[in-house]
From TrEMBL:
<dbReference type="InterPro" id="IPR010428">
    <property type="entry name" value="Zincin_1"/>
</dbReference>
<protein>
    <submittedName>
        <fullName>Metallopeptidase family protein</fullName>
    </submittedName>
</protein>
<dbReference type="Pfam" id="PF06262">
    <property type="entry name" value="Zincin_1"/>
</dbReference>
<dbReference type="InterPro" id="IPR038555">
    <property type="entry name" value="Zincin_1_sf"/>
</dbReference>
């Protein structure tokens, strides 16, 4: 049955991420509108080292940029904020869990990283996620 199936490609992930972004309620989508979404197989060694990680499967996503609360409207324009989604760790989590669809995991990681764009830290994001469950 699965002999002819291929793992979702980087382009497939980008499409699923775009669908998840487009499904966000308008106020959130508008505030996150300038974020560039990028899909890579893994975080690079420099990023992993910055988090003290050796296993590239530990990191499923990353926000890189100045959150909207810290931007100075009168100062120089900030570089575009970027959200990185890491395909292989997300696929690994999807396979390990087996109880949730790939689109849902991609959406979850994307929304988590958008939370950082809004200025939330991991503890605040986890608290919101716990309240939503």
């Amino acid at each position: 049955m699965w002999k002819d199936q291929l793992a979702p490609s980087l382009d497939d992930f980008a499409r699923l991420a775009r669908e998840a972004f487009d499904a966000l309620p308008d106020p959130f989508r508008s505030l996150a509108g300038d974020v560039v979404i990028r899909v890579d197989d893994f975080a690079d060694d420099e990023v992993l080292a910055g988090f003290g990680m050796e296993d590239p499967f530990e990191l499923t996503g990353l926000y890189h940029g100045v959150d909207i609360g810290l931007r100075d409207s009168m100062g120089p324009a900030a570089d575009p904020s970027r959200i990185f989604l890491y395909r292989r760790p997300i696929l690994d989590e999807w396979c390990e869990r087996g109880d949730v669809g790939l689109s849902e995991i991609i959406a979850h990681v994307l929304i988590h990283e958008i939370g950082h764009h809004f200025g939330l830290d991991d503890d605040q994001i986890h608290h919101i996620e716990d309240e939503a469950d």
